[in-house]
Design brief:
Elements: H1 24-32, H2 34-43, H3 47-60, H4 64-74, E1 83-87, E2 93-97, H5 98-131, H6 136-150, H7 154-164, H8 172-190, H9 198-209, H10 218-228, H11 242-250, E3 264-267, E4 270-273, H12 274-280, E5 286-289, H13 290-293, E6 306-309, E7 319-327, E8 332-340, E9 343-345, H14 358-371, E10 375-377, E11 388-395, E12 400-405, E13 415-417
Antiparallel strand pairs: 1-2, 3-4, 3-13, 5-12, 6-7, 6-12, 7-8, 8-11, 9-10
Helix pairs in contact: 1-2, 3-5, 4-5, 4-7, 5-6, 5-8, 6-14, 8-10
Length: 433
């Protein structure tokens, strides 16, 4: 029986394995019954049938990366003999008929989709535990458990994305689970900057944005981890201004720096609206405005979502941060942001909380439980700027302007534009293959 024994090449990402596939005989028995199995067993002595059976078994036990390579070969143009050449691992490269090609291509695609589906199935109870956590400390532990589940599998998923050129995930639940894993990494990676020097972080994100040190930098900080998690570079500037953030998630436009939120995408040989393309793939962005969020409770909010706050409140957004966690029982939203006024790590462990009110102590302890660090309010030295990397703790209310979530497609490489006059032309640079 064929089993995968190939050693990983140097520099090749380690793949999370597929769950053991059912043996082809068991799969046949399940779908067609014992008579079909008996018929197959009678034919195993036939050389060509046995070779075909071995190839099918090779597909059944291939790794995700091997499946992608097989799929690409199975979809290649046939040769002069109306056959295609496929590398079946330990079986080597073999020529197969077009009829068998169709059968194996369907099997390989189904097996690949099972990898993403099983990732989502394994993640679901961990995500539910985060949502139903009794308090902030339990929610922190649940987030740690989610990261421990995601981290070994994300490299494999990104490797598959790179081989395929996009996130080709048929199941909507699986697509969302992959996006949630990317977003969780974004949110928790931002927490590392709580340990870093505020001025160094400020300088880093501003320089990458190509903006000035006197500019408001909350959006630069929010996009920094998204950028490092491979958000398409055409969208990085969509986080620079509160209006651009809303335009991005709601697929709308405003007269403020309209070029930061491209409206059209070039795919399948034509220009189409970004929303139209996302909708065709069942992967729309999400935007929840104040009216949708005002009631609190069981809202669809998760780590990595982008939040706009309206401090006045006067219907105009003022600040951009990222969700660290959300408690649906108390409607408490914990965020992390740059150019913020929230809590910072009490590195010296000398903060005196004796003057705090019970409410202030509760918020500070929530910030500490969510991040796993002892926290304190940041004192403002005379003449210093107020902005720093901080953790905010707020009950959902009038100051929450809106929350956005990207599409998984935003983490692919595409050609975008925002100028109407360019829509009748081919793109300046060709789309990625």
């Amino acid at each position: 029986m064929y089993r995968r024994t190939r050693e990983r090449k140097p520099g090749e990402p380690e793949e999370a394995p597929l769950r053991a596939a059912p043996h082809p005989l068991i799969a046949l028995q399940t779908s067609a019954g014992n008579r079909a199995v008996a018929g197959m067993l009678q034919r195993l002595g036939e050389p060509e049938f046995e070779r075909s059976f071995q190839r099918r078994t090779a597909v059944m036990f291939a790794s995700p990366g091997e499946l992608v390579k097989m799929i690409r070969q199975l979809h290649a143009p046939p040769n002069a003999d109306e056959k295609v050449s496929v590398d079946f691992g330990l079986l080597g490269v073999q020529d197969i008929s077009l009829e068998e090609m169709v059968d194996l291509a369907e099997l390989a695609s189904r097996r690949l989709q099972e990898f993403f589906t099983r990732f989502a199935e394994g993640r679901a109870p961990l995500y539910a535990a985060m949502r139903s956590a009794a308090d902030a400390a339990a929610r922190h532990d649940a987030i740690v458990a989610l990261r421990a589940y995601d981290d070994p599998q994300l490299p494999t998923m990104w490797h598959l994305h790179d081989l395929l050129g996009s996130w080709q995930i048929a199941d909507a639940t699986a697509r969302d689970a992959v996006l949630a894993a990317i977003q969780l990494k974004i949110a928790t990676d931002l927490e590392a900057d709580l340990q870093n020097d505020k001025d160094a972080v400020h300088k880093r994100v501003v320089e990458h944005a190509g903006m000035g040190m006197n500019d408001e930098w909350c959006g630069f900080f929010a996009q920094d981890s998204y950028r490092r998690s491979r958000l398409d570079s055409d969208f990085e500037k969509a986080f620079f201004h509160v209006r651009n953030v809303e335009d991005f998630f709601a697929y709308s436009t405003s007269p403020i720096n309209i070029g930061r939120t491209p409206r059209w995408i070039y795919e399948s040989g034509r220009w189409q609206s970004v929303r139209e393309y996302h909708e065709s793939r069942g992967a729309l962005r999400m935007w929840q405005n104040h009216a949708a969020l005002a009631g609190g409770g069981e809202l669809d909010i998760r780590p990595g979502d982008i939040v706009l706050f309206d401090w006045e409140p006067n219907g105009v957004a003022d600040h951009i941060v990222t969700v660290a966690s959300y408690d649906p029982t108390t409607s408490t939203l914990v965020t992390i942001g740059g150019n913020d006024s929230g809590y910072v790590i009490d590195k010296a462990g000398t903060y005196d909380a004796s003057h705090e009110s019970d409410a202030e102590t509760g918020k500070r302890e929530t910030a500490g439980a969510v991040t796993g660090e002892a926290m304190k309010p940041r004192a403002k030295p005379p003449g210093a700027a107020t902005g720093h990397v901080g953790v905010g703790v707020r009950v959902i209310g009038a100051q929450l302007y809106g929350i956005g979530r990207p599409s998984l497609i935003d983490f692919e490489d595409h050609v975008y534009d925002h100028l109407p006059e360019n829509q009748g032309k081919a793109p300046v640079k060709p789309p990625s293959p």
